[in-house]
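user: can you give me the structure for this one chain? C-alpha cells are fine.
assistant: on it. calling the predictor now.
[tool input]
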Amino acid sequence: MDENLAAQFEANRVRLQSVAYRVLGSLTEAEDAVQETWVRLNRSEPESIDNLAGWLTTVVSRVCLGVLRTRRTRHEEPMLGHEPESELAGPEDQAILAETLGPALLLVLDTLGPSERLAFVLHDLFGVPFEDIATIVDRSPAAARQLASRARRRVQGGDGLHPGDGRRQQQIVEAFLAASRLGDFETLVALLDPDAVLRADRAAVKAATANRDRGAPLLAPEVRGAPAVAAALSGRAAAAEVALIDGAPGAVWAPGGRPRAVFAFRVVGDTVTEIEIVTDPAVVRSLQVELLS
C-alpha cells in the first residue's frame, strides 16, 4: 500500500463521509460508499490525478448515485422545458437551509429522484460546480442546474414538515431508549414501524462477535421487521444517552463524554423506521454529536 496515498485519502475521509451521508441518508451505506471509493482509488493510476480531492468527490458521488438508482421505487420525471430557478439569495436563506439539515431534510430528499438529490446535495451543501455535477449525472450543466433548482424548491417548501417535528422525534427516541433499558419488548415493537430496519457497521458487528463469550448477543449487519429489530436492540442501548446526530434526534454511548457508538434514528410520524449503529472511530469523529442529557 502506498502510505502517502493512504494518508491523502484519510485527509479527505471526513468530507467524503459527509457527502455520502447527505446523498444516501444512511451512515452505514455512506461508509460502504467511502470504502468503495478507496478500492477504486487503488485500482486507478493515482499519479495521473491532478486534483485528488475533486476526483474522490466525483467517485464517491457516482457510487452513491448507483446506490440511489438501485433502491429507488419510482422513475425520475423527465425534464420538460425551462423551469424557473430558486437560488439561495444570501446568508438568510443559507441559515434557513442549515436549520433543515436534520431529519426533515432527509425525509424531503427521499421524495426526490436520484439525480435531483445528488445535484442538490453536491451544489447547495458542498459547493460543487454544476460543470462537475453534469459529468456525474450525465447531463448538461444547464440540466444539472435545473435538477438542483427543482430539488431546492421542494426543500424550501418543506413538504408539509414543521419545526415541531424535531421535538416529537426526540420524545420517541427517549421512549425507545427507556424501553430498551427495561427490556420492554412490547413497547419497543410498538415504537417501531412494522418494516423497520436496523443496520450496523462492520466495527459494531465485529465487536459484538468478539464479545460473544462475555454474553453479548450477536449483531447482524442488517435486521428487518419490528420484532427482529426489537429483539436485536433490547438492552443493547442501555448505556446510550439522547443526543443530536448531525442535527437529528438519536442516541450515543459516550463514556467520559467521548462518543464511542452512535445510534442514528429515522423517525417518521410516531414510529421509528430505521436505526443505524455506528462505532467506526473515523465515522463517529466525522459526525456532529451534541449530548442532550
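assistant: here you go. Residues 165-291 form a domain with the Nuclear Transport Factor 2; Chain: A, fold (CATH 3.10.450.50). The chain has two domains: 3-159, 165-291.
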